[in-house]
């Protein structure tokens, strides 16, 4: 039976089938599946096309027995209120793992510090993960970092703001993105701009808030104390913050929320109060998660490269591009990705 006809039957395709269709050896197919950089791009493409055509999926148990790898990558997160961010990151990481022949193991680390350490230790010891990705704010937990170091498992952090030379990490420039988004509102004629701060445990919250403050100050604009509200990155916290901002004596003409969930909450409260968005109030968010384009008006926001950050983290762990602990230079450990301002329907120029 030929490899092509076999793919259409109920019999599962094998590595031999892929090798025959691609016209290479089984060893070459194995090297491609294990991301061996010694294989040429032309050969790699032929093997991947053959594997896709045959719907070939590697036998992970056999691969684990044949090497020191487990082909599992762990993903740990702590703050479920960042639902859109976590799910978007996770889906991209799942896809990236699948493309590289790995499986993603996800666990939520809630509870006491002892419970978080136990969850982390169990993940590493029970699944023998080849590496771990830590999402914010979990990525700033020093005891967790020390535990992973003691367990001798590589890890990548996403947008940390402490111990930056302790491990490789992926991030974007949260400060600059917030600075530019604030300037966009100012260029539209807004002077009375309020801000909803993100979760206090997340380093990006501080960077975004500082970017907002510096943009306002550089344009010589004052910020009344009542224009600043603390949020938690959750829709519920956005509702509370929005109610305070939209019922104060001098209502702002624009509100910058530190993520899209809170920006969506602002729009909801504005609608309930009969305030038109964007005619009477401009609203901007951050992240460009799905909610930004599923509500009306669509939210003007900072597009954080969440998918690209997940792909970069998986690539760093599966290829060993960043060698853990071999450098204390920030430039060798940091992988910075670009952001984009997405102008949509929730903002408009101030009417004179």
From TrEMBL:
PROSITE patterns linked to this entry: HTH_LACI_1, HTH_LACI_2
Residues making up the signal peptide according to the UniProt record: none
Statement: the UniProt record of this protein carries the keyword Transcription regulation: yes
Domain HTH lacI-type as annotated: residue spans: 13-67
The keyword Lipid metabolism belongs to this UniProt entry's keyword annotation: no
UniProt keyword list: DNA-binding, Transcription, Transcription regulation
Domain of life: Bacteria
Family matches, as SUPFAM superfamilies: lambda repressor-like DNA-binding domains (SSF47413), Periplasmic binding protein-like I (SSF53822)
Protein name in UniProt: HTH lacI-type domain-containing protein
């Amino acid at each position: 039976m030929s490899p092509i006809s076999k793919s259409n039957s109920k019999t599962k395709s094998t590595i031999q089938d892929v090798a025959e269709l691609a016209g290479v050896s089984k060893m070459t197919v194995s090297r491609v599946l294990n991301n061996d950089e010694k294989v040429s791009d032309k050969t790699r493409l032929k093997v991947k096309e053959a594997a896709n055509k045959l719907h070939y999926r590697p036998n992970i148990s056999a691969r684990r027995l044949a090497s020191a790898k487990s082909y599992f990558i762990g993903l740990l997160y702590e703050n479920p209120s960042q639902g859109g961010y976590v799910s978007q990151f996770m889906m991209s990481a799942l896809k990236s793992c699948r493309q590289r022949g790995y499986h993603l193991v996800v666990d939520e680390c809630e509870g006491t510090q002892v419970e978080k350490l136990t969850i982390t230790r169990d993940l590493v010891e029970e699944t023998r993960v080849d590496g771990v990705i830590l999402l914010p704010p979990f990525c700033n937990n020093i005891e967790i970092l020390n535990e992973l170091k003691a367990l001798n498992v590589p890890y990548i952090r996403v947008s940390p703001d402490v111990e930056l030379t302790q491990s490789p990490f992926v991030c974007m420039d949260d400060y600059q993105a917030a600075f530019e988004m604030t300037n966009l509102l100012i260029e539209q004629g807004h002077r009375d701009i309020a801000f909803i701060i993100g979760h206090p445990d997340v380093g990006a919250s501080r960077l975004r808030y500082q970017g907002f403050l510096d943009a306002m100050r550089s344009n010589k604009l004052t910020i009344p104390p009542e224009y600043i509200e603390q949020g938690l990155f959750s829709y519920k916290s956005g509702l509370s913050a929005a109610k305070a901002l939209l019922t104060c004596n001098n209502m702002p003409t624009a509100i910058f929320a530190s993520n899209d969930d809170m920006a969506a909450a602002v729009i909801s409260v504005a609608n309930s109060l009969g305030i038109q968005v964007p005619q009477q109030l401009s609203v901007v968010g951050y992240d460009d998660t799905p909610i930004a384009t599923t509500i009306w008006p669509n939210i003007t926001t900072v597009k954080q490269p969440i998918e690209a950050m997940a792909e970069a983290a998986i690539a760093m762990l599966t290829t060993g591009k960043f060698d853990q602990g071999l450098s204390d230079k920030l430039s060798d450990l940091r992988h910075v990705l670009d952001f984009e301002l997405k102008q949509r329907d929730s903002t408009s120029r101030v009417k004179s």
